[in-house]
């Protein structure tokens, strides 16, 4: 439609949708075109899973709390939004992390990269593992690489290379923080393709991860020209919490019309030849009955919601195969005076075999100095994982009691919290099944050929981390424009 603005509907106002909207406007500007973007979300606020509560001087994250600094898309977005001065890193004095083993906290052996040992001595000395377990891990240096090029589960791969003990006691609790999943059900290729690549290239996962570490240390960091106080931190967030990024995006997207509290319930593709009339390529029906005309649509809703929108048009088995796990977190604030425990690290993770209610605990006030007033303590306990989700729906008092029992038994904390914030995130953690990349690629190829201008993206596809979602939003914007205009 020469001479007329390009109309886009972005379905979902989480970070993937917000990034899509942001980069659609950017792409339009680069191409010297005018774009009208409408963002639709059933929630009354933007941000999706991102949800920061600022309360009594605390910055409390109810969803994600930070991001991996080495992943550039989020740093680039922060630069574009002019908020890099708000970035903060973790407290350098709280680097230590722990794993619960037989009811006791054990320091994580130094040199673990995503649960993979890259330094031998601390690993051998650690009493987290039996001698048999350590020996099995050592066999990684001698086992030939698998010649199979297909996908396999992350758990099978790690057991194959390092033995089930390292997988269950170290890797699973660490990686479960990202997926809340069972490693034996997650796709290796869709979660940690670098593991397979390390095995393939170096004949050993440990050797390969060591080489990756050296390479990463030598490469120019995405954080290179950030302030010294943050640039060495592995994780980052913003002084005012992740909502700082939402506030900045909200401002940058001032020209985007928001339909909040409204759901996209269906969309229709029109026949371009209809009586030679000027019909829009697509129409999106909203729960209010309103119909939005669109040249392009970016769907960023979770896979189960996206499946409802796409099912009338095509086979959506690939979306239905993505199971979502429910989790909750219980944040507790204390007076430092009453607390009675000093933290020397940033928290601990819990392997399944320990049988506690909590799956991990972040010593938030120690890890993130901006999160709490100096005379207060903030703790965040996580519950729920694949195979143990009922706990998420315990009534508040029972959930709090179970969490407090765990922290009393593990850390001896008996102090009464000043307040407790419980957040339940039902069906919030997508579990990429084995074959995920191949199946979703087929769906997307079909979508591209049959419905040019309709893009499906977000945490259900190529990575759940905030930087991955931002990258996918950018790819969606570029991709939609390309399929419309070339
Ligand atoms: P969402 O945020 O889920 O947004 C999708 C939106 O689509 C929702 O707002 C929904 O209301 C909307 N929607 C659904 N159906 C429709 C419809 N029919 N019409 C219109 N809109 C619709 N990542 C990190 O990098 N660091 C962390 O520390 C971290 N911690 C996490 C902790 C938890 C508890 C969880 C759950 C996730 C965490 N993640 C973390 C992952 C990350 O937060 C998410 O992957 C990311 O926020 C997902 O963004 P999204 O926009 O793809 O999806």
Short précis:
The protein is α+β, with helices and mostly antiparallel strands and 486 residues long.
Integer average pLDDT: 94
Number of strands: 22
Oligomer: single chain
Helix tally? 18
**Biggest sheet character:** 7 strands, mixed
**What ligands are attached or bound here?**
flavin-adenine dinucleotide
Topology of this structure?
Blueprint (H helix, E strand, L loop, with lengths): L5 E6 L3 H16 L4 E7 L10 E4 L2 E4 L5 E2 L3 H10 L5 E3 L7 E5 L2 E4 L4 E2 L2 E2 L2 H6 L5 H8 L15 H9 L1 H16 L8 H4 L1 H10 L2 H14 L9 H4 L3 E4 L4 H10 L4 E4 L3 E6 L12 E5 L4 E4 L1 E4 L3 H8 L6 H4 L2 E13 H4 L7 E3 L8 E5 L1 H4 L8 E8 L12 H16 L7 E13 L4 H15 L3 E3 L9 H20 L1
Parallel strand pairs: 1-2, 1-16, 2-12, 7-18, 16-22
Antiparallel strand pairs: 3-4, 5-11, 6-11, 7-8, 9-10, 13-14, 14-15, 17-20, 17-21, 18-19, 19-20
The site of flavin-adenine dinucleotide has 35 residues, from α1, β2, β21 and α18.
Description:
By secondary structure, the protein is α+β, with helices and mostly antiparallel strands. Helices cover 37% and strands 23% of the residues. The chain contains 18 helices and 22 strands. Strands 8-7-18-19-20-17-21 form a seven-stranded mixed β-sheet. Helix 5 (154-162) runs antiparallel to helix 6 (164-179). It starts with 5 loop residues before the first strand and ends with a helix. Bound molecules: flavin-adenine dinucleotide (FAD). Flavin-adenine dinucleotide is lined by residues 11-17, 40-43, 48-50, 63-67, 263-264, 300-302, 305, 327, 425, 428-429, 458-459, 464-466, 469. Flavin-adenine dinucleotide binds next to helix 1, strand 2, strand 21 and helix 18.
């Amino acid at each position: 439609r020469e001479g007329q603005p390009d109309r886009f509907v972005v379905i979902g106002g989480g970070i993937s949708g917000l990034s899509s909207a942001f980069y659609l406007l950017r792409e339009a500007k680069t191409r010297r075109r005018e774009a009208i973007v409408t963002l639709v979300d059933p929630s009354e606020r933007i941000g999706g899973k991102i949800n920061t509560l600022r309360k009594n001087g605390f910055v409390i994250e109810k969803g994600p709390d930070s991001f991996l600094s080495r992943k550039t898309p989020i740093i680039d977005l922060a630069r574009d939004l002019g908020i890099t001065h708000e970035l903060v890193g973790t407290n350098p004095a709280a680097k230590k992390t722990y794993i619960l083993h037989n009811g006791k906290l054990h320091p994580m052996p130094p040199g673990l990269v995503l649960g993979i040992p890259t330094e031998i001595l601390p690993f051998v000395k650690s009493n987290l593992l039996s001698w048999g377990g350590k020996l099995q891990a050592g066999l990684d240096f001698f086992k030939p690489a698998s010649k199979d090029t297909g996908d396999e589960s992350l758990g099978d791969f790690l057991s194959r290379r390092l033995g089930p003990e390292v997988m269950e006691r170290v890797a699973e609790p660490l990686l479960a923080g990202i997926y809340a999943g069972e490693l034996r059900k997650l796709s290796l290729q869709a979660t940690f393709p670098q593991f397979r690549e390390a095995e393939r290239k170096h004949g050993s996962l440990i050797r390969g991860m060591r080489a990756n570490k050296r390479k990463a240390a030598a490469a120019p960091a995405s954080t290179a020209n950030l302030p010294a106080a943050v640039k060495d931190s592995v994780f980052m967030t913003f002084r005012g919490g992740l909502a700082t990024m939402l506030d900045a995006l909200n401002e940058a997207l001032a020209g985007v019309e928001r339909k909040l509290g409204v759901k996209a319930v269906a969309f229709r593709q029109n026949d371009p030849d209809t009586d030679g009339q000027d019909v829009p390529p697509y129409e999106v029906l909203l729960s209010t009955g309103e119909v939005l005309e669109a040249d392009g649509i970016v769907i960023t809703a979770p896979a189960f919601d996206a499946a409802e929108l796409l099912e009338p048009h095509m086979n959506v088995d690939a979306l239905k195969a993505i199971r979502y796990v429910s989790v909750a977190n219980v944040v507790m604030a204390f007076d430092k005076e009453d607390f009675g425990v000093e933290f020397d690290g940033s928290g601990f993770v819990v392997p399944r075999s320990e049988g506690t209610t909590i799956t991990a605990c972040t010593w938030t006030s120690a890890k993130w100095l901006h999160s709490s007033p100096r005379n207060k303590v903030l703790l965040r306990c996580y519950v729920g994982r694949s195979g143990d989700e009922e706990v998420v729906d315990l009534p508040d008092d029972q959930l709090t009691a179970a969490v407090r029992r765990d922290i009393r038994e593990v850390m001896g904390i008996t102090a009464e919290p000043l307040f407790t914030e419980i957040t339940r995130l039902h069906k919030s953690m997508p579990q990429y099944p084995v074959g995920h990349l191949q199946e979703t690629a087929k769906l997307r190829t079909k979508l591209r050929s049959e419905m040019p201008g309709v893009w499906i993206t977000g945490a259900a596809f190529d990575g759940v981390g905030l930087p991955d979602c931002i990258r996918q939003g950018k790819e969606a914007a570029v991709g939609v424009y390309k399929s419309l205009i070339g």
